[in-house]
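Narrative of accomplishments. A recurring question from our advisory board has been how the design workflow behaves on a single, concrete structure rather than in aggregate. To address it, we present the structure tokens for one chain from the evaluation set, followed by the sequence designed for it. No filtering or post-editing was applied between the two.
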């Protein structure tokens, strides 16, 4: 497979950046991730980083080099990250687990699968047109879906930041998954935090992506959102990909995975250390048997989401 990819993030007017993004790929499978740590809870930046590290490690464990069941993997990734946040809470004796949104996309054999929890979004675009996007797990989006609120109020409603689904909450996350879609050369995928889509109109995002190289378009979008957010602006993060096909000759700026040795994985997700781990255990060295047990327990538990 061949694609071009670019990611960028700015702190905006906040004291710290609680957004995280990254990607991993083998010769046959590509994983895109973006998380927005929830600032209303403890250590949102830890939640976002730990979620990505856990999901990236599990992908590397499962991709051999393809994923046998992409839809099931999306569930497993999200449940694994949720479990990791509660493990972090227990080890550090915190009253609540840190929380984060998540949006994840898996590309394999010319198709894309995606899932999300919260209000970090994925857009699927073709020729500058938005073919699909995720629907926010927010109070405002629920009111719009019920016909009780105009979409025009989405960005100004006083409850626009209230979410009813995320990772790290006491209840299990609700995993919203899209049916797999076939990608055509030139299709684009944009993963972004609400700091971007809440400040730059969707039509502007689509136009900028289709009219320039990602290396210029993505930083321009992020910078525009920071300016628009002003003194109260949020963190702004974007990860964009242009799909170029399964096996095509192309420019050196594009990534081509067919040359990767079997069993190798390329990742942009950085491992880190946290207070719950000793000096010899990095965060990404997850216990896969523990994760598998936790996933099995979550699959058998009744799923529900509560406002918070």
């Amino acid at each position: 497979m061949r694609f071009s990819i670019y990611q960028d993030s700015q702190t905006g007017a906040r004291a710290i950046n609680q957004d995280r993004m990254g990607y991993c790929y083998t010769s046959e499978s590509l994983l895109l991730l973006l998380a927005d740590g929830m600032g209303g809870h403890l250590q949102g930046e830890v939640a976002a980083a730990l979620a990505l590290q856990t999901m990236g490690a599990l992908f590397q464990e499962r991709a051999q080099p393809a994923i046998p069941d992409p839809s099931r993997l999306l569930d497993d990734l999200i449940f694994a990250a949720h479990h990791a946040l509660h493990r972090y809470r227990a080890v550090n004796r915190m009253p609540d687990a840190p929380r984060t949104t998540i949006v994840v996309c898996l590309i394999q054999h010319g198709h894309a699968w995606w899932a999300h929890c919260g209000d970090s979004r994925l857009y699927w675009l073709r020729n500058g047109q938005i073919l699909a996007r995720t629907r926010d797990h927010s109070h405002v989006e629920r009111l719009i879906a019920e016909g009780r609120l105009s979409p025009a109020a989405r960005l100004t409603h006083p409850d626009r930041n209230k979410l009813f689904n995320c990772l790290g909450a006491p209840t299990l996350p609700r995993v919203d998954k899209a049916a797999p879609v076939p990608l055509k050369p030139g299709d684009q995928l944009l993963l972004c935090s609400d700091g971007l889509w809440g400040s730059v109109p969707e039509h502007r995002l689509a136009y900028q992506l289709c009219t320039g190289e990602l290396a210029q378009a993505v930083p321009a979008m992020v910078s525009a959102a920071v300016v628009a957010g002003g003194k109260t602006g949020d963190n702004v993060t974007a990860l964009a990909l242009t799909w170029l096909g399964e096996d095509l000759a192309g420019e050196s700026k594009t990534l081509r995975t067919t040359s990767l040795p079997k069993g190798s994985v390329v990742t942009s997700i950085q491992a880190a250390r946290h207070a719950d781990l000793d000096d010899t255990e990095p965060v990404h060295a997850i216990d896969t048997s523990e994760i598998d047990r936790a996933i099995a327990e979550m699959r058998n538990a009744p799923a529900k989401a509560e406002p918070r």
